[in-house]
Amino acid sequence: MIAVHAIAGAFSASDCARILALADTAPASDARLVGAQRDHDIRRAELSWLDEAEGGDWVMERIIELVRGANREVFGFDLTEFSESPQVAAYKARHSGHFDWHADIGEGPLARRRKLTMVVQLSDPGDYDGGALEVMPGTQVHVAERKLGSATLFPAFMLHRVTPVTEGVRRSLTIWAHGPSFR
Predict the structure, then answer these.
(1) For residue 142, with 0-12 CB atoms within 10 Å meaning exposed, 13-18 middle and 19 or more buried, which class applies?
(2) Euclidean distance between CA atoms 34 and 92, whole angstroms
(3) Residue 15 within a domain
(4) Residue 39: what pLDDT?
(5) What is the pLDDT of residue 35?
(6) Which of 60, 77, 88, 180 is most buried, taking the most CB atoms under 10 A from its CB?
(7) pLDDT, tens digit, for every residue of 35-85?
(8) How many CB atoms lie within 10 A of CB 87?
(9) Burial class of 107 by CB neighbour count within 10 A (0 to 12, 13 to 18, 19+)
(10) CA–CA separation, 93 and 69 (whole Å)
(11) CB-based contacts of 109-112 (< 8 A; 24+ apart in sequence)
(12) Has residue 39 been placed in a domain?
């Protein structure tokens, strides 16, 4: 069975602070679903895209290094590129920020080529309650590490969700590695 892979300390606390500062310089928008649909019953978050923030090249370099290593060691997928910008999501308690069960592979031209998802914890776990990243690789739910800077990687076809944030704000960075269709 293909596993959920965790990398503790993928980004340092100072790296996470730098990423959040970059995200704060980019315009934020209401999160949407594939196909630009908005449904707050399914997803409620604000998104910033790091390609819209100047000085973030180092983030992508680190992402490439982490994904390359994890893919070599764990997944063995045919990955060819990163066709989408890293996104920073803010799940806020005042809006019951969440993202219900879904898979990242989908119908859109980019979403159908997503093969591997990486989510990096940018918030200190004491800054919020709720907001657990849960991944379902089989019949059991895997709860991702909440430690600041930890990365969780899983195939884009796996069901996963972010439970509602009940206090504070949970922020995370998400990126997808793309390649030819699964066969």
Answers:
(1) middle
(2) 21
(3) yes
(4) 57
(5) 46
(6) 88
(7) 445 555 678 899 999 987 888 899 999 999 999 999 999 999 999 999 999
(8) 19
(9) exposed
(10) 35
(11) 110/83, 110/84, 110/176, 110/178, 111/34, 112/181
(12) no
pLDDT for residue 114: 96
Residue 36 lies in a domain: no
Residue 64 identity (one-letter amino acid) = I
CA distances from 107 to 73, 103, 143, 182 (A): 29, 11, 27, 14
Q: Give, in degrees to the nearest 5, the angle at Cα 111 between 109 and 115.
A: 125
* 0.90 surpassed by pTM: yes
Alpha carbon separation from 37 to 31, 33, 40, 43, 99 (Å, rounded): 9, 5, 10, 10, 14
In a domain, residue 122? The reply is yes
Token pair 């940018």 is at which residue? 122
- Total domains in the chain come to 1
Q: Give me the residue label for tokens 């949407």.
A: 32
Which residue stretches of the chain have pLDDT < 70? 1-2, 31-41
Cβ atoms within 10 Å of 145's Cβ, excluding its own: 15
CA 63 to chain centre: 11
**Tokens 């998400």 correspond to what residue?**
174
Tell me, what amino acid is at 93? Answer: A
Single-letter code of the amino acid located at 52: E
Bridge partners (DSSP) listed for residue 68: none
